[in-house]
Amino acid sequence: MLTASADGTARLWDARDGAAGLTLKGHGDSVFAVGFSADGRRVVTGGSDGTALLWDARTGTAVRALKGHSGPVRAARFSPDGRRVLTASEDGTARLWDARSGQALRVLRGHERAVKAAAFSPDGRRLLTGGDDRTARLWDAESGAPLALLEGHHAGLRAVAFSPDGRRLASASHD
């Protein structure tokens, strides 16, 4: 199990007995986002310092810093194949990164306010973001092209997801 904390750490726990495992220290302040790679070998964290950090889940060693956001990182997810990372930030952008090199591959612009939720489709070909502008946006992961604007919420979005078959989208809001 992986948790984020306002004390600037993320923690790995044994889900069977609740025993504390590794403490991941590297963000200057609150950690808002955490995620595992599909193989469980890596962890991504996003913090109020505007960075996302990639970690070795077995050793707790930070292996890469993803820098480029100018605001807190509110969501961070590995692609299904583990080769890319998607981050969402209060700076109004989402970014797609190469997980090996740390290079920014795409900057997704279109939300009018903070972006606080992000997800990969099960096949990794599409991205979904949600933000304080009360919209969800669907993107092509390869080109970064916008595919759909989804409206209807009356408050900012906090979570987005694809169904397991990738054919449906879900969003959650403060409304």
What structural keywords apply?
175 residues, mainly beta, four-stranded antiparallel beta sheet, globular
Walk me through this protein's architecture:
There is one protein chain. The chain has strands at residues 2-4, 9-13, 20-25, 31-36, 42-47, 51-56, 62-67, 73-78, 84-89, 93-98, 104-109, 115-120, 126-131, 135-140, 146-151, 157-162, 169-173. The strands form 5 sheets. The chain has a 4-stranded antiparallel beta sheet, with no helix packed on it. The chain is mainly β and 175 residues long. The two termini are 29 Å apart. It has no helices and 17 strands. Strand 14 (135-140) and strand 15 form a beta hairpin.
Number of helices: 0
Q: What is the helix content?
A: under 10%
* Helix-strand sequence: EEEEEEEEEEEEEEEEE
Please indicate the percent range of residues in DSSP E strands (runs of 2 or more).
over 45%
Q: What topology, given as strand order, has the largest sheet?
A: 4-5-6-7
Shape: globular
**Low-confidence runs:** none
- C-alpha end-to-end distance: 29 Å
What structural category characterises the helix and strand content? mainly beta
| Major sheet summary line | 4 strands, antiparallel
Give me the count of strands: 17
Rg value: 15 Å
- Mean pLDDT, nearest integer? 97
